[in-house]
């Protein structure tokens, strides 16, 4: 193997996730995000869970690393609820 | 019996702080419940990571010998990067590895699982895969926790629930973290054969190097780290979030560029990326510690209490977590009435010198407001090196004017003076 630049999907593919289908642990109000001028979530979320899709902030909780950055940094109040995933779900680190 | 299901203590979070607290209490015969939201202890945790050994020694002499530690750190390295070059200071001190070695690189999934196992071996109950949703409050006191429909009660609840500490917030002790109070750490774990690690970093197989680097964050306040483990390397960056939010590049991209920097990539070449993690870290040191870390029936320890020291060279969290967990346990053991436990905890933090350690670096984080540290000065250092080492057959510039030229190209003397003054005031 050689070391190369990894894209967002490749980075998350390294990790073990158990996705709690139908139960997002973070709730995002897209209407509020649409009025947010800064949308800092796009650059600071280390898992790139927040991305622009048709000029709208789109949130995917499946690859969330549970760090809390979006909750702390959200300026537009779009993150309306932030919790850890229910027990046994979410990311499981084998190293770190 | 009404008290059948009641514990002496419930510890929420089986990281170093929670396990140190639970270990000490269980060893003294207390009926302890240690709760962990991950499927196993450590499975939700990310750190650089290096553990300063004195903390484990404080908990129990020789305990570190049983711990799954990685390499003892005998090389401390500082790297100043710019686009093309790197200046590295390498401090080798074999004494750091003698007797009780000063510090070890660690891998948290292994370390935390071992630690929680130690707690269990002293008779505590470890329950993994349990997310605590809320606290139970009665007559103004915390008397237990809720998880789903389950209620569990104890004389005291210790929140070791990490930097986000939702429990500390629920207890009303402090508000949510402010953007300037935490940094974002991202990290890749790269597997690499031990013989390659030892050769590339100039260490024996049980020894290791710890490296910090600046000049690789696109000018954002922050820095990179590299730790050598057994069979792997931990590589990452910690970003100041306020500054990261002001620019347009995704933090992942900045990190990946750092990984591929011509002075970094050869260190990990041939390796295999096996994990990517991210975590918040307390950034403000002493001034970031909440004023209130306790109320009746409730104590806050470790990252949850925002204990942390970052001088740019020394990055500490896990040791302080262990010491605070120990302080909490000692307070609980000493206390003769629930109303005095909190104050005893604050006193134990002083007795065990955690408070003094935090205070010694009280203003240190102000240094990181000097923005030129993160781009201009590393570039200046590399250009100075370039001037000193260049031989091209042309008439060399006189040393003084050549060096002054490098300095002037990068910063004015006014800037140097004001940055120097600010640095001096912070130390």
Short description:
By secondary structure, chain A is an alpha+beta fold.
Protein model, in words:
- The complex is a heterodimer of chains A (96) and B (427).
- Chain A has 96 residues and is α+β, with helices and mostly antiparallel strands.
- Chain A has helices spanning 8-13, 30-34, 41-44, 69-73, and strands at residues 16-18, 26-28, 50-53, 56-59, 79-82, 90-92.
- Chain A is globular.
- Chain B has three domains: 6-69 and 106-174 and 290-352, FAD/NAD(P)-binding domain (3-Layer(bba) Sandwich); 180-282, D-Amino Acid Oxidase, Chain A, domain 2; 366-426, no CATH class.
- Chain B has helices at residues 16-27, 54-59, 108-121, 166-170, 194-201, 241-244, 251-259, 265-268, 318-334, 341-351, 354-360, 376-389, 399-410, 413-426, and strands at 6-12, 32-36, 50-52, 72-81, 86-92, 103-105, 125-128, 134-138, 141-147, 150-159, 182-191, 207-214, 222-228, 232-240, 272-282, 294-295, 298-300, 309-310, 315-316.
- At the A-B interface, α1, α3, α4 and β6 of A face β11, β14, α7 and β15 of B.
Main interface: chain pair and counts: A-B, 40 and 62 residues
Low-confidence stretches of chain A: none
Classified by CATH, the class of the largest domain in chain B is Alpha Beta
What is the number of E strands of chain B?
19
Largest sheet of chain B: 8 strands, mixed
Q: What level of helicity do the residues of chain A show?
A: 10-25%
Structural class of chain A: alpha+beta
Gap from first CA to last CA of chain A = 21 Å
What proportion of the residues of chain B form beta strands (DSSP E)? 25-35%
Q: What's the CATH first level of chain A? A: Alpha Beta
Reported CATH architecture of chain A? 2-Layer Sandwich
Label the overall shape of chain A. globular
């Amino acid at each position: 193997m050689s070391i190369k630049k990894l894209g967002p999907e490749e980075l998350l593919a390294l990790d073990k996730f158990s996705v709690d289908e139908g139960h997002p642990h973070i709730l995002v109000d897209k209407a509020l995000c649409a009025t947010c001028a800064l949308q800092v979530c796009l650059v600071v979320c280390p898992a790139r869970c927040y991305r622009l899709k048709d000029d709208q902030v789109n949130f995917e909780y499946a690859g969330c690393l549970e760090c809390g950055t979006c909750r702390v940094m959200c300026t537009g109040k779009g993150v309306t609820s932030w919790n850890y995933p229910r027990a046994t779900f979410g990311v499981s680190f084998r190293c770190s | 019996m009404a008290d059948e299901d009641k514990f002496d203590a419930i510890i929420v979070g089986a990281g170093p702080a929670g396990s140190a607290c639970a270990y000490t209490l269980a060893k003294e015969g207390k009926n302890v419940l240690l709760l962990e939201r991950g499927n196993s202890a450590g499975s939700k945790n990310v750190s650089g990571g290096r553990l300063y050994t004195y903390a484990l020694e404080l908990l129990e002499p020789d305990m570190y010998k049983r711990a799954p530690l990685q390499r003892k750190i005998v090389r401390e390295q500082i790297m100043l990067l710019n686009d093309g070059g790197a200046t590295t200071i390498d401090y080798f001190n074999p004494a750091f590895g003698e007797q009780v070695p000063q510090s070890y690189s660690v891998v948290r999934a292994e370390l935390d699982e071992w630690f929680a196992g130690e707690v269990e071996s002293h008779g505590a109950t470890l329950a993994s895969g349990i997310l605590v949703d809320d606290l139970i409050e009665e007559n103004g006191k915390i008397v237990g926790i809720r998880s789903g429909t389950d209620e569990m009660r104890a004389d005291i609840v210790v929140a070791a629930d990490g930097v986000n500490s939702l429990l500390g917030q629920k207890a009303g002790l402090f508000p949510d973290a402010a953007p300037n109070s935490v940094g974002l750490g991202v990290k890749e774990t790269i597997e690499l054969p031990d013989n390659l690690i030892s050769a590339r970093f100039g260490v024996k197989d049980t020894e290791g190097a710890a490296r910090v680097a600046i000049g690789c964050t696109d000018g954002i306040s922050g820095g990179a780290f590299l730790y050598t483990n057994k069979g792997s390397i931990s590589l990452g960056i910690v970003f100041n979030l306020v500054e990261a939010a002001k620019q347009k590049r995704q933090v992942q991209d900045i990190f990946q560029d750092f990984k591929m920097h011509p002075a970094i990539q050869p260190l990990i070449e041939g390796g295999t990326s096996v994990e990517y993690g991210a975590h918040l870290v307390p950034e403000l040191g002493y001034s970031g510690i909440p004023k209130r870390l306790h109320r009746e029936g409730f104590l806050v320890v470790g990252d949850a209490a925002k204990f942390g020291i970052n001088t740019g060279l020394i990055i500490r969290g896990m040791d302080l977590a262990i010491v605070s967990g120990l302080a909490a346990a000692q307070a609980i053991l000493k206390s003769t009435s629930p109303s005095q436990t909190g104050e005893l905890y604050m006193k134990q933090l002083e007795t065990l010198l955690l408070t003094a350690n935090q205070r010694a670096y009280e203003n240190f984080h102000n240094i990181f407001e000097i923005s030129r540290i993160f781009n201009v000065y590393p570039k200046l250092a590399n250009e100075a090196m370039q001037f000193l080492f260049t031989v091209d057959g042309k008439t060399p510039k006189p040393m003084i004017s050549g060096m002054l030229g490098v300095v002037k190209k990068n910063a004015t003397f006014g800037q140097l003076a004001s940055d120097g003054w600010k640095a001096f005031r912070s130390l």
